[in-house]
């Protein structure tokens, strides 16, 4: 078994899609639109061809604060292949104004990673 995809609601669908395309080389599907409920989405595929990310939006959603110390999904982790790429991408995101939550660093359990507060306050872990 494998995780086929993870879905995330966002307010600005195009900005969210562009974030993952620009920084993580994601390949989006064509925009899907369900007129009856005004639902829009993209599926994003990453270069490894594994799990996908579905970005979705519709009118009338709530947008609660996304604190780290809460239950539920906390971050999405994306492997970029090397420590050097973790360092480079973290520096690029920081230069582009995104807040770096931690790292780059080697964690106590041996992962080399950084965590950035990405699009719409959602945390993205960048790892080897």
Structure description:
With 128 residues, the chain is of the alpha+beta class. It folds into 2 domains: 1-59, 2,3-Dihydroxybiphenyl 1,2-Dioxygenase, domain 1 (Roll), CATH 3.10.180; 74-128, 2,3-Dihydroxybiphenyl 1,2-Dioxygenase, domain 1 (Roll), CATH 3.10.180.10. The chain is 20% helix and 37% strand. The protein has helices spanning 13-24, 83-95, and strands at residues 5-9, 27-28, 32-34, 39-45, 52-57, 75-79, 99-106, 112-117, 123-127. Strands 1, 2, 3, 4 and 5 form a 5-stranded mixed sheet that branches. It is globular, with a radius of gyration of 15 Å. The chain starts with a strand and ends with a strand. The mean pLDDT is 92.
Give the SSE map.
Elements lengths: L4 E5 L3 H12 L2 E2 L3 E3 L4 E7 L6 E6 L17 E5 L3 H13 L3 E8 L5 E6 L5 E5 L1
Parallel strand pairs: 1-5, 6-9
Antiparallel strand pairs: 2-4, 3-4, 4-5, 7-8, 8-9
What's this entry about, in short?
With 128 residues, the protein is α+β, with helices and mostly antiparallel strands.
Which structural traits does this protein have?
2,3-Dihydroxybiphenyl 1,2-Dioxygenase, domain 1; 128 residues; 2 domains; five-stranded mixed beta sheet; 37% strand; single chain; globular; alpha+beta; four-stranded mixed beta sheet
